[in-house]
Amino acid sequence: MTPEGRTVLVTGATRGIGRAIAERFVAAGHRVATISRSTQVPDGVLAVTGDVTDSAAVDAAFTQIEQELGPVEVLVANAGITRDGLMMRMSDEDFEQVLDVNLTGAFRVARRASKGMIRARFGRIVFISSVIGLYGGAGQVNYGASKAGLVGVARAITRELGGRGITANVVAPGFIQTAMTDALPPEQQKTYLAAIPAARFASADEVAGVVQFLAGPDAGYISGAVIPVDGGLGMGH
């Protein structure tokens, strides 16, 4: 990245992986913003009120970011929700809400970001998927579908915009050390850990490091790739 930094947008930067990504870009000297319903964002991050399920709200948020920080050059589409449940009991609403946020929401922000990236003939788009998208997960047909769909989105963008200096990649985290995993019963944690060749959960910062690499100059010839950060859990999928 240039010495003066880039304008970076990280959706869902209030907690977890998104927060770690935003903090890492801030520490590296970049101008960082997030679109969120919450103002509880890391220091140095511009919080713009918005909703990725609303195209008009996404457009308004981008306009504010462009006015205050400049055109978005790096987009990290991280915002996501879960509505877990067995398929036979899952409602249409639970299925559609997860896809609307996780998949269609990522499409909305990527579509809006691409306008400035095309003009600049430069752009880095990183979609935060999950090992569940390719490995599968019982009770997560909606979440798995939304995260698998991001691979298709990234590869279509690569075909469309690769000749304009724009890359689109997918990062697929596995189990991450968070308050949620810390709260799991010890026996359940052991079961999960037994399936991970690395025998540990990842830190959110390990995911953030991969995202930062994909946004940087050394990754300019990587596009349409799926980078797992899962300790080997999903290898081969």
From TrEMBL:
Keyword Transit peptide attributed: no
Domain of life: Bacteria
Keywords associated with the record: Oxidoreductase
Ketoreductase domain sequence ranges: 6-179
Record bears the keyword Oxidoreductase: yes
SMART domains, alphabetized: PKS_KR (SM00822)
Gene Ontology molecular-function annotations: oxidoreductase activity
Family, per entry: Belongs to the short-chain dehydrogenases/reductases (SDR) family.
NCBIfam families recorded: PRK12826.1-2
Protein known as: 3-oxoacyl-[acyl-carrier-protein] reductase
Organism: Serinibacter salmoneus
